[in-house]
Amino acid sequence: MTNTEPHILVVDDAREIREPLGRYLRGHGHRTSLAANAAVARQAIEERAVNLAVVDVMMPGEDGLSLTRWLVDRGGPPVVLLTAMAEEADRVLGLELGADDYVVKPFSPRELLARIRAVLRRTQPVSSQIALETRRFAGWSFDPASRMLAHQDGRTATLTSGEARLLRVFLDNPRAILSRERLLDLTQGREAKIYDRTIDNAVVRLRRKLEDDRANPRLLVTEWGGGYALATDVDAEC
To answer: Which of 45, 151, 216, 224 has a C-alpha 20 to 30 A away from that of 108?
Structure first.
């Protein structure tokens, strides 16, 4: 195995889950690091490049949702949550915080591996020149490779992987009305539609970074009964 293989951080206080899962992922071509709690996970993130974190929600001390919030606020890596069957509220909150996917315990390692690979496909930069070019709109420029927003007045912001995917969809479809269902299809890539309000929350987070007046958005506008639209033209940066 080389350093080009994806590096997965598994964060779970249960040794009987953490260690077998680490071995399983290594056996399927991934480098892995293991953390028994959020503190160890934070140290691992600070010390080495991690491509994706698998985070258990229910941990003693700092729980997985708090760790997810910290990961999202600092700009990554993407997160797949491990949640209990009965904890639907935690799943919804985790997605609203910016987690990229979830798997319900007890889970099949094969299903988790498939989820991990799907998230990595969605969040890794696309190799085409068009997908990687910087886009300009309404005084902003967006670099998809670094997930960095920069305004001509000097403001900057780093997007989470989920926010960046959503913004790319809007930039690819300027002035088009996109329904929540369509936005879910283009950003999440999975069949379940029950968490469509995660799109609303992702739009709210983008507005915090883009809009001058979040109470009266002029860029990401709501189309009542329809969805959302980016109400501006988009250009590629030369």
So the answer is: 45
pLDDT at 52 over 80: yes
End-to-end CA gap in the chain: 39
Residue 67: the pLDDT is 94
Same-domain check for residues 77 and 26:
yes
Residue 134 sits in the same domain as residue 222 = yes
Q: What's the pLDDT tens digit per position in 75-84?
A: 778 899 998 8
E strand spans, 49-153? 52-56, 79-84, 101-105, 135-137, 140-143, 148-151
d(CA 238, CA 233): 16
Backbone angles phi and psi of 13, in degrees to 5: -75, -15
Q: Is 64 in the same domain as 86?
A: yes
11/114 same-domain check: yes
